[in-house]
């Protein structure tokens, strides 16, 4: 859901299975892609579709935490994985 | 010495004091001089001189280490002597092996040693073989520890010759293997700016040639390969697999026997686990090679058949995966089995005997169409392999024994509602049809019925197209069935469509009929059936008078065109086609021109129709043999020149057809292609473009000479006044462009005059933009006329020539031009640059780049736009040169992203995106700045701009960061 006037973007995503171990990575990738692609004025909210993941709460919390996201991107290994998710070709 | 005024003996005497000097340096210099002399005139030496010199040099080998390099040079010169007496080569080599520690020498001197050995191996093979294994051993010692890639290439070549020419290896096989295999797998990156140009690939190939040159290495090599397949490096894996494949070409059962189980398990593991397609393909090739190798060896009755046991191993490991069409391992297993089965008939039987019944069973067991599709695809793969062996005896072939079951499965698939399954079924039909004797006549009729149903009545266009294609590829195999069964059905369908008109459904079905008719016309006998049907249809359509008929005519023409393309390769069919279709079309066209000229509404439609007819005629004509072409030209020329219509069928119209009354291009109508274009421009409604094209075609082909000059002069004289002013300027320009192109293509001297005229017109405020676009026409390959396919006179490198002749003028013109027309020059320049072959462009780029950069700062937005569109491909193609200007480029592009014109913003963003293809090291300093600057266009009010901004910014984020 995009609200241009209030500069907010909310994204819901559904992991393949309730125990999907990649949920955090998927969320992080979505978030990073949005950060890179949207003007700075937007406030982002990426979260799991309610009721579709076992540790939905924990993941949402991690994704909402700005510092944890920033820290994750400092980690070169994690950044590599995220970049791999985001580079279309290769 | 060269002139013969001195002898070598005199030289040696003169050098005497030097050669005997106690200081090793002076001695070295003396010998160096002597060696240089010998290198230049070794061919003049006498046998006796050579003997003495060799003895001297051998003796010198024991000398001080400073002297050795020159001594080796001298020996190399002597080794090239033809008069070297027998025995000396052996003694030289012995001396070298004994006295010199090769690996402590410099690279160049080691290279000299290798060349001495190579020279001797080339000329004194017999003598060296007399040395026996000692020679091999000596060489092993020489090359042991070699590190330089240049020397390695030579050394590998020597080893290969050692093995290939049957030198005695004696007990040193393992040593020889060790000394070469230690380089495997090659891990070598050529240093940047390497002048020797040795690539990793060269080393890999020459080492592989050594390793796979003899079965004697097998017992050492195979374990090494198995070990390297486990390696983490993909290159090592690939290399070992390729080497294995190469080895299989010479190995036999004996060598492989011991290692088969472990080879199989490594291959299986790689195929099942790997994510890389390359590795998988290589594995499959290797497996294929292994299985070929095993099936090649002759069976003796008492030994166990290795192929059987190997294949049963494979079967055992793969079979159960085939039963689970949803799982990941299905395809790898199927591919492995197919690779092994494709090796030989025996392997094929062995595998299909067990796999095919299994697959058929599975097909029935799994009701879901996606699963069925997977199974059918695998089945198809196995059936396709059968084609390799051609016709097989009835009782041997496994698929034949399963014929009924296979057919029923395929037919069931064709009836399935799932389109995907249908598509696979159709492909399977094609394969089945191409297996000789597989389909019984009744099955065949069923197949044709299915194809007709699918082609005409299936709703999904994909499967109907596939069905037509299948019909097309089966038709040449069973022409009788298709012409007897399918063509009449289609004809019927076409006619029934005419009776009850207008419903949309019918319209599309008629289209399909036409397409299907074209599709099955892949065999001469069928062409003879279908062409009359199509022509008949064309006539009936033409007689009707509604507007939509033009559409119909166009689609018939398209079908005819397709038929023409299909029968081009076949001389007889082509001639038949040409004889039947071309006169008929011409007659119709002439008749149309006669009867419908006054009706203006009709005219527009006709142009479309004509446009559809032209490719038909040109396709029918291009592949005619010269005699036939001449024959038909002799019909066509009177037609156009004198209105001679007698050869056209149904010639019931008056003879008023004389298109060339104006007479301008009368003289040069010998060539058929030109005639075809002439045909087009003779009709009243076509615009000047086609006429211009026609004239250009004639000019391009006309032989050099006075006549041509006269024609050209005439044309130029007529063009010039209308170019200067008046309502017909654009027409004149079109003609000028085409004529220029025709002349540029053939390097005609007049072409420079015409291009100068064009360059002048670039400054014209009215025609300038059109002229600039005209440069595109000049440089690009034209799709319909004036290209190689229609035998135009195209000289090689005409683009390069045009570039060198005209770009300086363009640049000059740009500098001198007024602000309004600068863009024209730039656009012309960018057209020229874009069509230039890359290598030429890269060398010329530095001079032009400053101009382009300057143009970027120009405030005119058209200039900006054309510069940006010129720069973008350059960024992608010549990153090295562009990176020198990175600073200017970044600044300019970023400032242009806030231009008021949307198109400029988009182009600038595209360029910024293209920048990321420059080397990372160049980009990194700008990364932060660019990313910050690109944040602004993300919020642009135009969606297209935002889209480009997102793409560019995303790519910049990836610059230099891991995981790109």
UniProtKB/TrEMBL annotation, chain A:
<comment type="similarity">
    <text>Belongs to the MIP18 family.</text>
</comment>
<protein>
    <submittedName>
        <fullName>MIP18 protein</fullName>
    </submittedName>
</protein>
<dbReference type="GO" id="GO:0051604">
    <property type="term" value="P:protein maturation"/>
</dbReference>
<dbReference type="GO" id="GO:0097361">
    <property type="term" value="C:cytosolic [4Fe-4S] assembly targeting complex"/>
</dbReference>
<dbReference type="InterPro" id="IPR039796">
    <property type="entry name" value="MIP18"/>
</dbReference>
<dbReference type="InterPro" id="IPR034904">
    <property type="entry name" value="FSCA_dom_sf"/>
</dbReference>
TrEMBL record, chain B:
<dbReference type="GO" id="GO:0016226">
    <property type="term" value="P:iron-sulfur cluster assembly"/>
</dbReference>
<keyword id="KW-0227">DNA damage</keyword>
<keyword id="KW-0963">Cytoplasm</keyword>
<keyword id="KW-0539">Nucleus</keyword>
<keyword id="KW-0677">Repeat</keyword>
<dbReference type="GO" id="GO:0071817">
    <property type="term" value="C:MMXD complex"/>
</dbReference>
<keyword id="KW-0206">Cytoskeleton</keyword>
<dbReference type="InterPro" id="IPR024687">
    <property type="entry name" value="MMS19_C"/>
</dbReference>
<comment type="similarity">
    <text>Belongs to the MET18/MMS19 family.</text>
</comment>
<dbReference type="InterPro" id="IPR016024">
    <property type="entry name" value="ARM-type_fold"/>
</dbReference>
<feature type="domain" description="MMS19 C-terminal">
    <location>
        <begin position="689"/>
        <end position="915"/>
    </location>
</feature>
<comment type="function">
    <text>Key component of the cytosolic iron-sulfur protein assembly (CIA) complex, a multiprotein complex that mediates the incorporation of iron-sulfur cluster into apoproteins specifically involved in DNA metabolism and genomic integrity. In the CIA complex, MMS19 acts as an adapter between early-acting CIA components and a subset of cellular target iron-sulfur proteins.</text>
</comment>
<feature type="domain" description="MMS19 N-terminal">
    <location>
        <begin position="12"/>
        <end position="273"/>
    </location>
</feature>
<dbReference type="InterPro" id="IPR011989">
    <property type="entry name" value="ARM-like"/>
</dbReference>
<dbReference type="Pfam" id="PF12460">
    <property type="entry name" value="MMS19_C"/>
</dbReference>
<dbReference type="GO" id="GO:0006281">
    <property type="term" value="P:DNA repair"/>
</dbReference>
<keyword id="KW-0234">DNA repair</keyword>
<protein>
    <recommendedName>
        <fullName>MMS19 nucleotide excision repair protein</fullName>
    </recommendedName>
</protein>
<dbReference type="Pfam" id="PF14500">
    <property type="entry name" value="MMS19_N"/>
</dbReference>
<dbReference type="InterPro" id="IPR029240">
    <property type="entry name" value="MMS19_N"/>
</dbReference>
<dbReference type="GO" id="GO:0051604">
    <property type="term" value="P:protein maturation"/>
</dbReference>
<comment type="subunit">
    <text>Component of the CIA complex.</text>
</comment>
């Amino acid at each position: 859901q995009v609200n241009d006037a209030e500069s907010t973007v909310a994204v819901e995503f559904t992991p393949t299975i309730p125990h999907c171990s990649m949920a955090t990575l998927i969320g992080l990738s979505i978030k990073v892609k949005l950060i890179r692609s949207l003007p700075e004025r937007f406030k982002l909210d990426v979260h799991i579709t309610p009721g579709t993941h076992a540790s939905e709460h924990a993941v949402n919390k991690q994704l909402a935490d700005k510092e944890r996201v920033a820290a994750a991107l400092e980690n070169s290994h994690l950044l590599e994985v995220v970049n791999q998710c985001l580079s279309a070709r290769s | 010495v060269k002139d013969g005024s001195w002898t070598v003996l005199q030289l040696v005497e003169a050098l005497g004091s030097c050669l005997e000097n106690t200081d090793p340096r002076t001695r070295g210099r003396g010998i160096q001089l002597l060696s240089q002399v010998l290198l230049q005139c070794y061919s003049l030496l006498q046998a006796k001189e050579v003997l003495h010199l060799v003895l001297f040099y051998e003796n010198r080998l024991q000398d001080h280490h400073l002297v050795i390099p020159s001594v080796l040079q001298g020996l190399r010169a002597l080794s090239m002597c033809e008069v070297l007496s027998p025995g000396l080569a052996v003694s030289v080599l012995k001396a070298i092996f004994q006295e010199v520690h090769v690996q402590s020498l410099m690279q160049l001197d080691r290279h000299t040693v290798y060349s001495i050995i190579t020279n001797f191996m080339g000329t004194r093979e017999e003598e060296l073989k007399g040395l026996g294994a000692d020679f091999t051993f000596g060489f092993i010692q020489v090359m042991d520890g070699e590190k330089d890639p240049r020397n390695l290439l030579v050394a590998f070549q020597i080893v290969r010759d050692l093995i290939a020419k049957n030198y005695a290896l004696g007990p040193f096989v393992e040593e020889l293997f060790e000394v070469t295999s230690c380089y495997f797998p090659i891990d070598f990156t050529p240093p940047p700016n390497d002048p020797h140009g040795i690539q990793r690939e060269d080393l890999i190939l020459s080492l592989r040639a050594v390793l796979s040159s003899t079965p004697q290495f097998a017992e050492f090599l195979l374990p090494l390969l198995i070990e390297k397949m486990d390696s983490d490096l993909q290159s090592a894996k690939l290399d070992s697999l390729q080497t294995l494949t190469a080895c299989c070409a010479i190995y036999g059962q004996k060598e492989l026997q011991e290692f088969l189980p472990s080879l199989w398990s490594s291959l299986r593991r790689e195929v099942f686990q790997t994510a890389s397609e390359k590795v998988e393909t290589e594995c499959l090739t290797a497996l294929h090679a292994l299985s070929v190798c095993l099936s090649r060896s002759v069976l003796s009755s008492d030994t166990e058949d290795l192929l059987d046991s190997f294949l049963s191993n494979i079967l055992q490991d793969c079979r159960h995966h085939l039963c689970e069409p949803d799982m990941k391992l299905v395809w790898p297993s199927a591919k492995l089995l197919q690779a092994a089965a494709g090796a030989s008939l025996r392997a094929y039987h062995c595998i299909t005997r067990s796999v095919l019944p299994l697959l058929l069973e599975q097909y029935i067991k799994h009701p879901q169409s996606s699963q069925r599709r997977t199974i059918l695809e695998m089945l198809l793969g196995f059936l396709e392999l059968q084609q390799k062996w051609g016709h097989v005896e009835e009782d041997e072939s496994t698929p034949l024994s399963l014929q009924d079951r296979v057919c029923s499965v395929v037919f069931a698939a064709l009836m399935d509602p799932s389109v995907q399954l249908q598509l696979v079924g159709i492909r399977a039909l094609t394969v089945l049809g191409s297996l000789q004797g597989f389909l019984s006549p009744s099955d065949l009729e069923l197949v044709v019925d299915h194809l007709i149903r699918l082609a005409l009545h299936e709703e999904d266009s994909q499967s109907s197209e596939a069905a037509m294609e299948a019909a097309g590829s089966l038709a040449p195999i069973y022409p009788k069935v298709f012409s007897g069964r399918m063509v009449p059905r289609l004809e019927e369908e076409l006619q029934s469509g005419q009776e009850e008109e207008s419903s949309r459904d019918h319209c599309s079905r008629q289209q399909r009929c036409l397409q299907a008719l074209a599709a099955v016309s892949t065999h001469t006998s069928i062409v003879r059936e279908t062409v009359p049907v199509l022509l008949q249809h064309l006539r009936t359509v033409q007689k009707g008078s509604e507007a939509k008929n033009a559409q119909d005519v166009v689609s018939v023409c398209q079908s005819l065109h397709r038929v023409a393309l299909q029968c081009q390769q076949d001389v007889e069919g082509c001639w038949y086609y040409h004889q039947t279709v071309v006169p008929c079309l011409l007659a119709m066209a002439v008749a149309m021109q006669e009867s419908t000229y006054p009706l203006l509404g009709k005219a527009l439609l006709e142009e479309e129709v004509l446009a559809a007819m032209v490719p038909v005629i040109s396709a029918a004509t291009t592949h005619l043999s010269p005699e036939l072409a001449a024959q038909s030209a002799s019909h066509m020329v009177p037609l156009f020149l004198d209105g001679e219509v007698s050869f056209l069928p149904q010639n019931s119209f008056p003879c008023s057809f004389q298109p060339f009354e104006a007479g301008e291009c009368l003289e040069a109508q010998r060539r058929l292609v030109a005639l075809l274009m002439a045909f087009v421009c003779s009709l009243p409604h076509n615009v000047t473009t086609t006429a211009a094209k026609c004239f250009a075609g004639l000019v391009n082909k006309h032989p050099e000479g006075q006549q041509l000059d006269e024609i050209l002069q005439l044309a130029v004289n007529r063009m010039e006044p209308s170019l200067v002013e008046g309502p017909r300027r654009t027409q004149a320009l079109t003609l000028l462009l085409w004529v220029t192109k025709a002349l540029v293509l053939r390097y005609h001297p007049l072409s420079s005059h015409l291009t100068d005229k064009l360059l002048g017109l670039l400054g014209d405020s009215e025609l300038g933009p059109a002229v600039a676009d005209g440069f595109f026409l000049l440089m690009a390959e034209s799709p319909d006329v004036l290209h190689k396919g229609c035998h135009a006179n195209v000289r090689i490198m005409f683009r390069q020539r045009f570039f060198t002749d005209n770009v300086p003028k363009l640049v000059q013109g740009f500098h001198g031009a007024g602000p309004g027309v600068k863009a024209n020059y730039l656009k012309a320049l960018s057209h020229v640059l874009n069509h230039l072959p890359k290598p030429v462009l890269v060398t010329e780029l530095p001079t032009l780049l400053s101009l382009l950069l300057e143009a970027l700062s120009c405030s005119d937005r058209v200039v900006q736009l054309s510069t940006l569109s010129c720069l973008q491909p350059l960024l992608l193609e010549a990153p090295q040169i562009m990176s020198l200007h990175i600073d200017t480029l970044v600044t300019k592009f970023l400032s242009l992203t806030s231009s008021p014109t949307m198109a400029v913003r988009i182009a600038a963003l595209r360029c910024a995106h293209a920048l990321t293809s420059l080397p990372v090291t160049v980009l990194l300093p700008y990364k932060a700045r660019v990313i910050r600057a690109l944040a602004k266009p993300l919020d642009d009010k135009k969606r297209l701009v935002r889209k480009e901004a997102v793409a560019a910014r995303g790519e910049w984020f990836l610059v230099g960061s891991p995981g790109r």
